[in-house]
Amino acid sequence: MKPYFNSNPYNNVEVYTDLAVEAHNLAVKRTGGEVPGVSVREEIVENAKITRIEVLNQQGAEAINKPVGTYITIESQDLRGQNRLAHDKLTDIFATELGNLINFDAIRPHPNLEPTIFVVGLGNWNATPDALGPHALNYLMVTRHLYQQAPPELRKGLRPVCALAPGVLGLTGVQTAEIIKGVVQLVNPDLIIAIDSLAARSTDRLARTIQISNTGISPGSGLGKKRLAINQETMNIPVIAIGVPTVVNAITIVNDAMEQLIQGELFSPTERERFRHIEEAEKKRLMANILSPYMGDLIMSPKGIDELIKDVGRIIGGGVNVALHPDITPENLSLYL
Amino acid sequence: MKPYFNSNPYNNVEVYTDLAVEAHNLAVKRTGGEVPGVSVREEIVENAKITRIEVLNQQGAEAINKPVGTYITIESQDLRGQNRLAHDKLTDIFATELGNLINFDAIRPHPNLEPTIFVVGLGNWNATPDALGPHALNYLMVTRHLYQQAPPELRKGLRPVCALAPGVLGLTGVQTAEIIKGVVQLVNPDLIIAIDSLAARSTDRLARTIQISNTGISPGSGLGKKRLAINQETMNIPVIAIGVPTVVNAITIVNDAMEQLIQGELFSPTERERFRHIEEAEKKRLMANILSPYMGDLIMSPKGIDELIKDVGRIIGGGVNVALHPDITPENLSLYL
Amino acid sequence: MKPYFNSNPYNNVEVYTDLAVEAHNLAVKRTGGEVPGVSVREEIVENAKITRIEVLNQQGAEAINKPVGTYITIESQDLRGQNRLAHDKLTDIFATELGNLINFDAIRPHPNLEPTIFVVGLGNWNATPDALGPHALNYLMVTRHLYQQAPPELRKGLRPVCALAPGVLGLTGVQTAEIIKGVVQLVNPDLIIAIDSLAARSTDRLARTIQISNTGISPGSGLGKKRLAINQETMNIPVIAIGVPTVVNAITIVNDAMEQLIQGELFSPTERERFRHIEEAEKKRLMANILSPYMGDLIMSPKGIDELIKDVGRIIGGGVNVALHPDITPENLSLYL
Amino acid sequence: MKPYFNSNPYNNVEVYTDLAVEAHNLAVKRTGGEVPGVSVREEIVENAKITRIEVLNQQGAEAINKPVGTYITIESQDLRGQNRLAHDKLTDIFATELGNLINFDAIRPHPNLEPTIFVVGLGNWNATPDALGPHALNYLMVTRHLYQQAPPELRKGLRPVCALAPGVLGLTGVQTAEIIKGVVQLVNPDLIIAIDSLAARSTDRLARTIQISNTGISPGSGLGKKRLAINQETMNIPVIAIGVPTVVNAITIVNDAMEQLIQGELFSPTERERFRHIEEAEKKRLMANILSPYMGDLIMSPKGIDELIKDVGRIIGGGVNVALHPDITPENLSLYL
Q1: Which of B177, B217, B288, D287 gives 20 to 30 Å between its CA and that of B269?
Q2: Known Gene3D superfamilies for this protein (chains A, B, C, D) (predicted)?
């Protein structure tokens, strides 16, 4: 969720989003049709809509400003509700998608050994909307320390899982990716799963969308500050990223206000026409101007965010358990925690 | 902080604020000059600006949509910083203003008895920006239960203080004012001090302003939902309200965006002129339109709100201690907690 | 949980317990057989043992130092485990016993009206083992404020429930019973359910026992400090008390140590015999001596108490929901929260 | 604080303590005089007593069951009080002792470079008495990430400090020492300061004693389970350990009960004499018997532990700031947080 918190007014006037599905929509709007290098498939299931975006090549990556790879988005109104049955179904859907994205056979250290998975809860536990990662770890079944001592028949349905909430740079003085890399070098896991809060463009998606991707996390893309990424390149093992949007960028509202204002009936067609031809740079300057008092300062998060973080954390943590351990199902999940 | 959380799109398009100083500024802007029935005095002190607004009569009350009474606003950049020395000075300034607003002699139950003060921490402890009241009570010195047993020489520098965080309707199923009134009827305090989070119009004021008023709290004024007020009329004893803005209304940003857009250089003078004459009703409809996806849903609070609530809660709780107990000063405050 | 926290060495050397089942056991040990005025029935069900103690008259009340009334104890190893299925069964057992103890018809304010129930979460949320009551309220379905506006068909399966966590004397400066009474006088509920942490004699019972009684809560019985009770006499409506032991008294361990030491093989039969004849008063003085450095100072609570309070709070809060609302069952409980 | 939580009845019947000062007292009691290989100096200062124990050689290490090195104990009643002035003095005393134990010149990576210090907050943030380390980090000034970018004149009075709360094995599935070592290998600090909760023998010392040592932390010494130590040997850089006792072992109370019972007047001189000659092994068996129902289960921590952890955490975190940064003093400490 770095982009939200590190705002360079002029760069940031681009409507940034962590969600590939939003980035793709913006690209479609810009190009007016298909985005070359990006394939999109949608599927409607009970309780949710699943969108699978493949960024196929560098052209696609540049078009939507996301690295090459797979982005799965699960959208559901129920994520934000309090219906536990619906939550259980979402846990199931999420676990299935996550499980499908992980190639367990490919990451085995040895044909007879289960891979060790390192789950990282990113974000700042002292800032409610940024605390999803640490919260999700509360619901994670950590097994690595028990696994080696367990008899083979018990091990069978489980995989060794370890976990860490590394905090944020301001709390530790160390780049998050460095802490993770340090642990990776000693513990030698075979896969990293990183859970993080995201910034979305649309308030509709707040706490209603789960994104799973196999591209890792590249904080600060498009921002001035360069931070070490958490991905296969830096960690030397695959990195799956799981994120849920919990904040929106102030620019979204201003942008929408401007567009609606200008497209609206308050203006005559010629006025509208004239405005359309004002240069992009000029518009951006104006928006930066309007936004400057709010930038880097305002958190725009859903009402009830304190509770939402807990609820969504339970779904994410629970779903990771189901995806990682063969013997755990959404039905018996509660027996394991 | 009710207005923020109960939004009726059409009513709420009025730029609502809990701060008298903002309401007065809006009225000045509207009338273009003095607001009849309202007197304003400003004072610059070290570290802070103090504004004293007197709503003198019904005309003034209607002009700024606040009950007749005194509203003292302390504004300081330091409230939001982490400089403890500056916090100590603000505690002192706040305590002095609060102490001046309380007429201890008038509320004594008997010439020889100190008045009992009931401090109420309003708001929802499960929603970070709404949790200022409950947090402030953590720093309050509660003495009523010790007072009666204390020997006269110890009592001398202290006053009997009791406290309650009554929660919110959604948590208790009981109107907050009813809980307070129930306790008041049994405990018979002589003054209520109610601490609450407020909604401001300007993000600049978030966690940078303390408002003290002797008019109590009248939740829901201007909103559809009518809630029982917490004021002299309902409680039969004086009620001092202390508030700090922790959220801003989404409408503020849209409103500012519209104004800046229209006043800006993008439009020709004739366009601007024409826009100025578009009816208010039409403008409101447009704004409600722009805002509708965000209403009742988005919390806009300052970054670092979790920490700010703690810091400001300490200043408020500490300042109330200094104001209420003759023997407590900003210097020796820490000895008492 | 007052007895634990207010220790008068000499009085407290009596092995105090909040649990009727333990008090009865002690009486049996003393008398060597039946305790007149007290009837006891045990029932073994799946996952739990239920003990129903009736204190029939004043003689029984004095024998076990508990007021006349019914005390139901549900004991289960599963309360302390993390098996959600077992938790669901315990929720069911608890809800059934609680429901049976409430005579809903008798407390209706009018033949056509459902009674209003006021659930009180006693204890100090800042002291982990004392925070059970406030925590249980997090899982309570509060309906009173919605009930009046709900259409009759929705009301049918629900009852109006309100709730408050009144804090403790040290936090509020007001006796807990006074706060409750104030709210009762304004809200006019028909039944109070008070949830509290208890002190047990045996560590085996910590977080493994639920006690339900219809005698209310009489804090400080046997202690120097007299506090206002929360019972039918003081509140003018029935009071059901629900408690779970979360601390043990230090005296328990010392007492056990002494007994084992003396009964053990270290001593010759004649030594043991002699010791048996040492006066009770002398033994108490010795124990008070041994205990004095620990009294009023040490909390002895189970390992993992932070998590236990949350888990048990969910079972208690959930069970109260099932007991109070006809439409809520252990199966659909999660849909209501 | 491992020994407390991992109890092997027979081993643990030895009265274990994390405090060198208690271990030394026990050895003195056993030997009846001086303990060879251990030197002890006491100093009384305002507000506190400082004991400096040097374990000089292997003989001393075995005698008190602590590694060779320096152990400084600061004892003060004020640590547990709420007097902020006294807390400030303790912060000063603690910072001075800590600063003296660190040889900053010896750990400089280069004559012109300040050493980087890595502060580790050990323990489980979900178990109140074990949460001291994580809490202390809340008050730590973390500078490493700012240090490199800061201009030389700002750097001058500060040193680069980074921090991590690595959790516990049960939360992460990774040995704490492994996480720390991983970070150490990547970040290359020059000194580790590890803050932890300790187990004491005497309840008098709970939250009243700070121990500083240069021997690091060797969890599990004397216990069955072997855990990787955090010391110069394992980390390749010096490790300073800071600890405050927050729990006592149940065995302490039983042991005291037995001793007082036997030494007391209840027994005749001949009985006492006979008891003295009962074999140690027999006594231990008896104690293990008495204790078995409580072992591994009961936490015995001071009343008000939730608040104590916060208060002591502030003193420790603040004192570390003063010790590490030349420009920070107890007086201006609050300006830096």
Answers
A1: B288
A2: HybD-like
